[in-house]
Amino acid sequence: MSTISTRKKILVVPLDWGLGHATRDIPLIHEILNAGCEVVIAAEGKHAALLQQEFPQITILPLPGYRIQYAQKGWFFGIKIIQQIPKIVKSIKYEQKWLQGVVKEHHIDAVISDNRFGLYHSQIPTVFISHQLLIKTPFGGIIEKCLQQLNYKYIRRYSACWIPDYAGSNNLSGILAHPKVLPPNTTYLGCLSRFVNRTGVQKQYDLLVLISGPEPQRSNLEKMVLEQVKSLPISALIVSGKPGTPEKQQITPHIQQINHLNANELNEAMLASGMVLSRSGYTTLMDLVKLNKKAILIPTPGQSEQEYLGKFLMEKGYFYNIPQDKFNLSDALLAAASFPFKSFEHEEDMEQYKPIVQNFVKSL
Fold first, then answer.
1. How many CB atoms lie within 10 A of CB 230?
2. pLDDT of residue 4
3. Which residues in the chain belong to E strands, given as ranges?
4. CATH class of 205-344
5. Does the domain spanning 9-191+350-363 belong to CATH 3.30.750.24?
6. How confident is the model at residue 81 (pLDDT cuts 50, 70, 90)?
7. pLDDT > 90 fraction of the chain, expressed in percent and rounded
8. If phi over 0 gives left and psi between -120 and 50 gives alpha, with beta otherwise, what is residue 310?
9. Higher-confidence residue: 361 or 80?
10. CA 279, 309, 306, 133 torsion-angle sign
11. CA 251 distance to own-chain centroid
12. What gap in Å lies between CA 262 and CA 50, rounded to an integer?
């Protein structure tokens, strides 16, 4: 049995890009704790609030995120991100310096960085998690090649790279996590979801709407859904993706809106829903696959990764995808009702990540 003096201490740090990186780290944190280690988390804002709610016993250190600002118009999204590259580089340098002090002060034995580039260390094992080895942009071609080279430059500074997907052609991320050349010490984790699937759950909602992602597009989608759902003869639960503010309201007798649900509550809501409407953020996609749910995807406008994933997974038959500028809720529900949904065929491997985490802990 582990004691305080012998327990290894692992620092887990999610990227502050939407809530997906924080939520997909939840099963990893559980597995690290189950392996007898102590976990320290570094985050700020809504990411810290979400993880503190899930793990009230864990210390959360304040660490500024990259704090990316997003464009109001989708077509300007890529340009807006590129303009902020100097700010991102500055943040990477800051977190590298920050890590050196934290490792000494808190006696950190290993680091798991979910897509934050500056958390490598020369004296302890460090893991970089990403499903985007190829970073999609609206510009394609040489821009994507340059970004991939920069991406690999940072990844190679880590001891290992973990990819939350499956190797081979039967996968969820397509070219994003399956480029011709992989970084060294790469391991595919399989599907990484905090949720638990089970049968026999009684249906409560015709539609579960998951509003998520960066502002202002999060609010844009929320406004569209609220305007359109009121006139439809369906039961619906709308989750607005605002952790730390648990307010809820009854929109109509059959439609409820709530700002946030914890993991267990959201798990139950998804199981009790006939259809899910959400962004095509990668963590959400893994959750949907884990629970074998039918879904309508609306990629964040201008976010090339989500637009690629929506089209890629619709072509495979896993989800129905529609751009936000063509979105009409009534039409989307009709189209989804006749869409020939397929189940993802990796149900037996939904816990592939567990032995990988256990072996990592044993190696410390």
1. 11
2. 46
3. 9-14, 38-43, 59-62, 110-114, 126-129, 160-163, 186-188, 205-210, 236-239, 248-252, 255-258, 273-278, 295-297, 320-321
4. alpha beta
5. no
6. low
7. 71
8. alpha
9. 361
10. positive
11. 28
12. 8
For the record, the structure tokens of 87 come out as 């700010």
The two beta strands, 236-239 and 248-252, are unpaired
- Mean pLDDT over 163-184 rounds to 94
Q: Which residue has the tokens 């699937």?
A: 197
Using CA atoms, how far residue 299 sits from 36, 211, 226, 290, in Å, is: 39, 11, 18, 20
Please give the radius of gyration of the chain, using alpha carbons only, rounded to the nearest integer.
20
The crossing angle, in degrees rounded to 10, of helices 20-34 and 353-363 is: 60
Domain residue ranges of the chain, discontinuous segments joined by +: 9-191+350-363, 205-344
Mean pLDDT of 333-345: 94
First-to-last alpha carbon distance for the chain, in angstroms, is 16
The more confidently predicted of residues 6 and 121 is 121
Kindly list the distances between the CA atom of residue 319 and the CA atoms of 37, 236, 281, 313, 314, in Å, as whole numbers in the listed order. 38, 19, 13, 6, 5
The predicted model scores a pTM of: 0.91
Report whether pLDDT(64) > 90: no
Residue 69 has pLDDT above 80, yes or no: no
- Compute the C-alpha angle 14/47/124, nearest 5°: 30
- Return the structure tokens found at 292: 């074998």
Q: How confident is the model at residue 119 (pLDDT cuts 50, 70, 90)?
A: very high
Residues 39-63: what's their mean pLDDT? 93
